[in-house]
Amino acid sequence: MGRLRTQSSIKAIEEEPEDCEATSSDKAAVECMINSEIGAVLAVMRRNVRWGGRYVSGDDQLEHSLIQSLKALRRQIFSWQNDWQSVNPVLYLQPFLDVIRSDETGAPITGVALSSVYKILTLDVLEVNTINVEEAVHMVVDAVTSCRFEVTDPASEEVVLTKILQVLLACMKSKASVMLSNQHVCTIVNTCFRIVHQAGTKGELLQRIARHTMHELIRCIFSHLPNVDNTEQSLVKGVMSIKNESGGLNPDYSFNSISENGTGASEYDGQLSSGGFNSASSGLIGGVMDESIGLTGNGKDSVPYDLHLMTEPYGVSCMVEIFHFLCSLLNVVEHTGVGGRANSITFDEDVPLFALGLINSAIELGGPAIRHHPRLLSLVQDELFRNLMQFGLSASPLILTMVCSIVLNLYRRLRTELKLQLEAFFSCVILRLAQSRFEASYQQQEVAMEALVDFCRQKDFMVEIYANLDCDITCGNVFEDLANLLSKSAFPVNCPLSSMHILALDGLIAVIQGMAERIGNGSVGFEPNPVHLEEYTPFWMVKCENYGDPDYWVPFVRRRKYIKRRLMIGADHFNRDPKKGLEFLQGTHLLPEKLDPQSVACFFRYTAGLDKNLVGDFLGNHDEFCVQVLHEFAGTFDFQDMNLDTALRLFLETFRLPGESQKIQRVLEAFSERYYEQSPQILANKDAALLLSYSLIMLNTDQHNVQVKKKMTEEDFIRNNRHINGGNDLPREFLSELYYSICKNEIRTTPEQGAGFAEMTPSRWIDLMHKSKKTPPYIVADSRAYLDHDMFAIMSGPTIAAISVVFDHADKDVYQTCIDGFLAVAKISACHHLEDVLDDLVVSLCKFTTLLNPASVEEPVLAFGDDAKARMATVTVFTIANRYGDFIRTGWRNILDCILRLHKLGLLPARVASDAADDSEMAVDAGHGKPLTNSLSSAQMQTIGTPRRSSGLMGRFSQLLSLDTEEPRSQPTEQQLAAHQRTLQTIQKCHIDSIFTESKFLHADSLLQLARALIWAAGRPQKGNTSPEDEDTAVFCLELLIAITLNNRDRIGLLWQGVYEHIANIVQSTVVACALVEKAVFGLLRICQRLLPYKENLADELLRSLQLVLKLDARVADQYCEQITQEVSRLVKANATHIQSPMGWRTIASLLSITARHPDASESGFEALSFIMADGAHLSPANFILCVDAARQFAESRVGQADRSVHAVDLMAGSVSCLVRWAQDAREAMSESEAAKLCQDIGEMWLRLVQGLRKVCLDQREEVRNHALLSLQRCLTGVDEICLPLGFWPQCFEMVIFTMLDDLAEIAQGNAQTQKEYRNIEGTLVHALKLLTKVFLHLLNELSQLSSFCKLWRNVIGRMEKYMKLKVKRGEKLQELVPELLKNILIVMKAKGVLVPTSTLGGDNVWEQTWLHVNKIFPSLQSEVFPNQDLDQATVGRSPVSNESVASQNE
Predict the structure, then answer these.
(1) In whole numbers, what is the pLDDT of the chain averaged over residues?
(2) CA 1175 to CA 1214: how far, in whole Å?
(3) Quick one: which of 78, 67, 79 has its CA closest to 34?
(4) Residue 437 — pLDDT band, cuts 50, 70, 90?
(5) Which of 89, 211, 530, 579 could be 136's S-S partner, Cβ–Cβ 3.0 to 4.6 Å?
């Protein structure tokens, strides 16, 4: 139980002096060594008169027993035949030990004997398997610790003491040390400490050796703690201390400690004359030091172990004793608060520093094993940490440093057992000192900050602090406080940058980089689900099912943090209006809909920030509900085993005790009832507790109210409390203790309202120890970023501000640290989707680039090259933009401002605005059309990849090198050349072009913001003149906008609206040709050309946008018309199959139509139209009418040769074949109804076609109009396969043929000018009449079936009559032609039975109407067509055909 496991793996720590480095363990060497040591001791003894005289006399009987034993050993040593492991060590150790014990020997003899023992111990002949080794090592320890010698001079005394230390340490480091008992180990440590204590009056060397040995002993002992068995059963259930009552075995294994004055001097015992090191009879402790050295085993701090445990091989029992002893060295002031008033260090810092160093060594080596030993762990949790809290406020930087080192050690090894202790340390020590409170010196602040930074460098420190403390409603927001402290401490306020600021920055960046390193370990990239409380559950009872599983504890701590935040908001509402505050908490399901006393009491108990005056008034209220809340509130306290005054202090710290006596009575009744319920040891009943509580309140007022002049004495207080304990008196000692406690330490009935960090009073420490037994388990975080999103959201703003301020004020040495911090912030912001934070970072960084500053320097490029901070900031900005652009939103504006500044300085690479397909386009498009108008920073569309500026960075550099003729400039210096080179390298590192060429990978929101930023940066175009610089900026932004649009064709829908509106603003606000409108128009065409093949659903939107070209100012349009047409032509050729809708074709046709009358553009326009219409390749019902109209525009245009107009007419006429084909396809593939509908549509298209041709028939150019007439004739007679509905033909004759004839006749009768313009019009008239005749006869069968045939026929005759009467030059041809044509018509009509005599009267009688009109013109035609015989036959009887025809006409 509690002993070391004697394993072969335990290796003793060996430390050998130089003269023993090469010692051999073989038998001969050991024999020789022991023999020589015997000789050495004897030789020194012979030098002494006492020993030497007896030896010379030759009387062997007179030799001293010490000499005899040494000689006897010498005789035996070479006769032992067995292996040394089987030789009893007592045989060769005993003579030396006798010399050491003897009080007759002087210091030189004792010193040599000690050296001999030391050599034997370091030979490793004493091992675990050596015979009787346990007795041997015990003898060595007993002999050395009771060493006696005569003091002859101080130097020799120090030598002996040094050798005592040497031997004791060798004992502990030997392999046989595991055989030592707990008591012997304690004795060794005690002896060493006594030498340390006594060395204060000795030489410096002894002091140092003694302290070093003490450290080595502690390290040696506690290094074995991990190998000690668990000691759950080694604790005794009693509380009595072990006292020295036996005269045999020395049970006084407890250690000495320094008392209050800390000035105890080392004295020898009563046998000073003999120079004894220890008293003979009183054991190890008693009488060695003066009265200032006493036992620690007395009182409540005793270590209750069974006596037999101390006689067992050493293990945890002695370690507990030693650790308790070390802690007791820190108890230098008894019954004093741990807060600020205990800070007046009245003792030398040497003792606590020494003790803290030993404790630190013990913890370093004991490590996590301490948690397996409850008594050790209890010492760490309570006594050690209480002292650390006190010394943490020490004025000595050395002590504070050591305290912080110990706490860091404890955090790394035992943090799961020290949750509340760590909170107290950070709140009451680190935060108080580092914030300049408590009147801390600069050295204290610096040490506290260094300690905090060390903690921050522990990767999981802040996560665990946040999870365990900030997310616990009963704990403070330590993470927030520490993060704010670091941020504020990094700010240089009205002072230069100091090491403290840099230190705080290091801590801040360590936290940030810890978060950045956790990215990629899992649980990153998602935003935590928001917490919602659907129903009321008691918030103080929320538990986690498994504190070791992140799947359980992560949502649990988030829920707790949400509850804590809502409680803080509720507290704020409560402080303004208690009723509304409770209603708010009911609304958020933190309190039940119907309030119950327990929930309100727990709200008061566990919520920080409440107004304690309001809480006190509520609890003291006489209302029944308030009284119930008061009793529930008292029930939340744990007063178990607590003094009455301590319990009362804790109770009254949570609210302000009301002033009314009735309220005070109700409050104290509730307190007394709870206290008596938990700690009834002395008090007879709760009434006794109430009366005593009242008495303490009165005593407190009496002692600490300045208005009370006559203070109550101890006797007065005891007399006032007679017979209150159930009629009996309370013990006088009990009342005296209460009296002095109140006198020394006031009970504050008006507690602080949460200002700053409370000091740790004894009562608060007791309460903390009570709470630590009930606090939830400590959550250990792993390397995954579970809570980083929540934590970073809290600290990001102050962090960015702090790093920025330091970066602004720092020297070059700190720049890289700040940059690392910036990049870490960016990484975390991006991975946790905190876009606002990333935007803030970008804004802050852009300020440091100096690119946004007004151009105040003469040579900004040189200035930039000389400014390391600006260059680093610039590279960082663009690194963030390239790496984390997905999560930049409004920050794009600042980034673009920097890019624009670099553009104005000519520092950008040539292809910043290029897109992925530029290279191929340049190869394909080169040489087409005329070059665009060159401008300051705009290149041709065909060569967009070339630099916008001929200068660029190297251009500006060459300007620097050039010499001005008027004002010669000197050659640039080496510094200027180097600055330019640095600038060039910086811009290359930025990879600015990647932002735009890689924009296809940006998240949609970021891409949209980038586009909006570009539009914003370009500025809204203004009508009128703008400065060249503004125009240059607008052009550049437009280039970038077009580049990202083309690079994101798959997401064009996201960008299109903004891009279109921007281009529209440019087009509509421009009245003169300029680079900006040029870039807008051709960029728009380029976008359409590139995107149409991929975005059919957006084709209409894209093509509709081209209508902007139609809105160009006439002067602008005229200048760019040819190039626009070339682009449209390319667009059509590349994407004709992708244009499906009428709307899209309407836009294309409109653009092409405009070019018909433009001398430069018409050729390209007609080429595009021919591509569409030739052979009907790309004609469709959607674009047929539009293309026909466009072709008509070209046919009518007099720009260019007439051949083109003729070609245009051919295109129109040739399109009929498409109509025929569509009609055939419809009949084959569609139902009758669908086919009929399509035929109706085809008819409409055909009608528009012939109407267009009709208009061309009026062209002034003879060959064009005649060709148009022939083409019209073909179109009218070549549509039999279309099967046009009969109803179309009357329309066709009226709208096309008759109208054309009338228009031609009107032209023929025009004035001389008209006659001059329309040469050879009579030939056209002839063609027109022939067209009329041929079409009429071709369609006679269909037309004769119309009810309106007679009317149509009359119009035909009328037009012939009209043409017969026309007076034109060479009109005789017409007069000859008309009768001939009319006669032919009549003959055909006769042959087809359409014109036959009938008896029918009226306007629809074809026969009657025919001759009525024909006879007016040509009276002889009737007889020619119908000779008499035919006429008689016709009147006698009708042929069946004619009868049917007439019948059908009548119908």
Answers:
(1) 80
(2) 7
(3) 78
(4) low
(5) 89
Separation in Å, CA 169 to CA 19, 21, 90, 139, 189? 17, 17, 19, 15, 9
Residues constituting the chain? 1451
106 has which bridge partners?
A: 150
Using CA atoms, how far apart are residues 511 and 1015, in angstroms rounded to an integer? Answer: 39
CA dihedral 1050→1056→1059→1060, nearest 10 degrees, is 140
Cα(183)–Cα(180) distance, rounded to whole angstroms? 8
Catalytic residue among 14, 232, 260, 660: 660
Residue among 89, 211, 73, 195 at smallest CA distance from 140: 89
DSSP 972: P
User: Per the structure block, which two tokens stand in for 145?
Assistant: 């610790």
* Both structure tokens of 42: 């004897």
Cα–chain center distance at 715: 67
Token representation of residue 723: 């017979």
- Report the largest interatomic distance among the alpha carbons of the chain, rounded to a whole angstrom: 201
**Band (1304; pLDDT cuts 50, 70, 90):** confident
CB of 900 closer than 8 Å to CB of 1012: no
Q: How far is CA 1164 from its chain centroid?
A: 56
Q: Which residue has the tokens 């009771």?
A: 146
Going by the DSSP 8-state scheme, the letter that residue 256 receives in this structure is E
Instruction: Give 890-910 pLDDT, tens digit per residue.
Output: 999 999 999 999 998 888 877
Q: How confident is the model at residue 2 (pLDDT cuts 50, 70, 90)?
A: low
- 136 within 8 A of 126, measured Cβ to Cβ: yes
Contacts of 874 by beta carbon, 8 Å cutoff, 6+ apart: 849, 851, 898, 986, 990
The pLDDT tens digits for 1133-1167 are 888 888 888 888 888 888 888 888 888 888 888 88
List the one residue out of 331, 427, 466 whose CA is nearest residue 764.
427
**Which among 199, 187, 189 is positioned nearest to 161, based on CA atoms?**
199
Q: What is the distance between the alpha carbons of residues 412 and 464, in angstroms, rounded to a whole number? A: 12
Residue in the structure block whose two tokens are 């062997």: 60
Q: Which two tokens stand for residue 502?
A: 């840099």
DSSP code, position 179: G
Which of 52-56, 538-542, 691-695 ranks highest by mean pLDDT? 691-695
Handedness of CA 225, 227, 230, 236 (dihedral sign): negative
Catalytic residue at 715?
Answer: no
Q: How far is the C-alpha of 88 from the C-alpha of 85, rounded, in Å? A: 8
Residue 1378 CB partners (closer than 8 Å, separation 6+) = 1329, 1360, 1363, 1364, 1417
pTM for the full predicted model: 0.78
Amino acid identity of residue 241, one-letter, is: S
pLDDT digits (tens, 9 = 90+) for 708-754: 888 899 898 998 889 888 888 889 998 999 999 989 988 877 666 54
| pLDDT at 575 (0 to 100) | 93
Residues 6+ apart with CB under 8 A from 262: 332, 347, 348, 351
Looking at per-residue pLDDT, the higher value among 680 and 631 belongs to 631
DSSP character for 970? P
